[in-house]
Amino acid sequence: MSVSRRRWRRFAAVFATASVAVLLGGMTNPAGAAPKSIDGMSIDRYVATHDHPMGSQIRRVEGDGSTPDSRARARMPQGLNADGLAATATVAGIDVSGYQGNVDWSGYWADGIRFAYVKATESTTYTNPYFTQQYNGSYNVGMIRGAYHFATPDTSSGATQAEYFVSHGGGWSADGKTLPGALDMEYNPYGATCYGLSQSAMTAWIKDFSDTYHSLTNKYPTIYTSTNWWSQCVSGDFSSTNPLWVARYASTVGTLPYNWSYYTFWQYSSSPIDQDTFNGAYDRLVALATNHD
């Protein structure tokens, strides 16, 4: 292993195992509290200007047709699990970003939520000012938690964004309580659907991110996307390495992106908060948070 690779592996481990203090332009963040302002903006204005939550652009383009009935059906097992067998269990989860502010994790735990994904970063210019409260708070009530990165493939390389993500809370450790980081791939909030990239160039960008993340953490990132966006923008096959987190706001998960035969996570609604299920029993979720790739 090269000196550079060893340096990054040690660097990733520090961020994965330490109590996370998010870096916000040199500002301190005592006791997990968000600073009052960033770049001359109030926190609410800063988040509204820079934060694109997971699924926000999928909902913008594809809509959210979920209903109370569809949400109830989505929480039930369906499709195949990782063993290729009919799924028999699910685990309830949510995902949050800066828009949720300080989250009442005890309340969600009482509601049966057992895992959470927290937005850490976007591009190489944004970190969630509420990340510490959300990431550590979910962990402290007993949830299995993970972090996610909203990708902007037209602003910098996959490797650069993976390194930024890991250095701002997206690391991983085999503690049974930390899920692999998630790469959020969805419609461009700023312009062209596929960020001006061809399908082959987008595939190469995702592989660059994925391989870099794996080199830093010994874990491949979960890929979050919708089947419609993926079919338009990506030509590659990641089914043998990366867990799939599919977005579809309906009562069934529907057709999966290319060559994935099962999903690991499903975001099935954005109401009243982004709601997710893990495709399997709780012990399999623990295994995902424990085992190296």
UniProtKB/TrEMBL annotation:
Q: Provide a Gene Ontology MF annotation, just one.
A: lysozyme activity
Subcellular location(s): the record lists: Secreted
Q: Where is it mostly found?
A: secreted
Q: Where is the signal peptide?
A: 1-33
Q: Which CDD domains match?
A: GH25_CH-type (cd06412)
Does this entry carry the keyword Transferase? no
Keywords noted in UniProt: Antimicrobial, Bacteriolytic enzyme, Disulfide bond, Glycosidase, Hydrolase, Secreted, Signal
Which domain of life, per UniProt? Answer: Bacteria
Q: Which InterPro entries match?
A: GH, Glyco_hydro_25, Glyco_hydro_25_AS, Glyco_hydro_fam25_subgr
Enzymatic reactions:
Hydrolysis of (1->4)-beta-linkages between N-acetylmuramic acid and N-acetyl-D-glucosamine residues in a peptidoglycan and between N-acetyl-D-glucosamine residues in chitodextrins
Q: Does the keyword Cell cycle apply?
A: no
Q: What class of enzyme is it?
A: hydrolase
Looking up PROSITE patterns in the UniProt record yields: GLYCOSYL_HYDROL_F25_1 (PS00953), GLYCOSYL_HYDROL_F25_2 (PS51904)
User: Which Pfam families does the protein's record reference?
Assistant: Glyco_hydro_25 (PF01183)
> One GO cellular component from the entry?
extracellular region
**EC annotation from Swiss-Prot or TrEMBL:** 3.2.1.17
For this protein, the record's PANTHER family field holds: LYSOZYME (PTHR34135:SF2)
> Which family does the record assign?
Belongs to the glycosyl hydrolase 25 family.
Purpose of the protein: This enzyme has both lysozyme (acetylmuramidase) and diacetylmuramidase activities.
What is this protein's record name? Lysozyme
| Source organism per UniProt | Amycolatopsis rhizosphaerae
